[in-house]
Design brief:
This protein is mostly helical. The protein is 51% helix and 3% strand.
């Protein structure tokens, strides 16, 4: 799979997941323990412009010092998030997005290909979080998930040190690729609301 299609395939289905989130779901827990559905949507809206900017080699600081200081879920957040995902896909579909180094909202330069892998992970893993929290069952292409498992494995230990990922969840060696991606990020692939 080429870099130019990686983010588009990761994003496939996520806007539909978002559209199916009902107002009554906003307080529901998600597999991402520190976020309920509302906070997870806020997280995606909060960091989306920075991830989009990274494709253009621009440091786009988030709208506040911390996510907890701003609520971006007022108004038509489903349309806002769908539009943000569309812009993200367009930005990362340009060849230059994957070349050289870039920024992720701060001054530290990172390899653009590594950031692209993180963007794909953000879309798939948080898309799954939202879907699982609201009773949906999304599917992604196995080739995409195999590549994503490799990308997540590259940064998983660093992610754990930074508190972005939880401890790896054991899964069988022959587990489906989505389960392996989720387990690397510290999620239990069998997570269910209220369990």
């Amino acid at each position: 799979m080429s870099d130019l299609h990686f983010i588009a395939q990761a994003a496939a289905g996520v806007p539909e997941i978002v559209r199916r989130v009902e107002p009554a779901d906003l307080g529901a827990p998600t597999p991402c323990a520190e976020y309920d559905v509302r906070k997870l949507i806020n997280h995606l809206l909060f960091w989306g412009p920075s991830l989009e900017g990274a494709a253009r080699k621009a440091s786009v600081p988030p709208p506040a010092a911390s996510e907890g200081e701003v609520d971006l879920t007022a108004g038509d957040w489903p349309a806002a998030l769908a539009a943000q995902i569309e812009r993200l896909v367009a930005a990362w579909s340009e060849p230059a997005a994957w070349e050289g180094t870039t920024f992720m909202g701060g001054a530290t330069e990172l390899p653009a290909s590594m950031v692209g892998g993180m963007v794909a992970g953000e879309l798939v893993v948080h898309g799954w979080d939202l879907a699982r929290a609201t009773g949906q069952h999304p599917e992604w292409d196995d080739d995409l998930l195999e590549r994503l498992a490799g990308e997540v494995a590259k940064s998983a230990e660093q992610g754990r040190r930074m508190g972005v990922y939880g401890p790896e969840v054991p899964v069988p060696d022959d587990a489906p690729p989505l389960d392996r991606v989720l387990a690397l990020t510290g999620r239990d692939p069998s997570w269910k609301p209220g369990a």
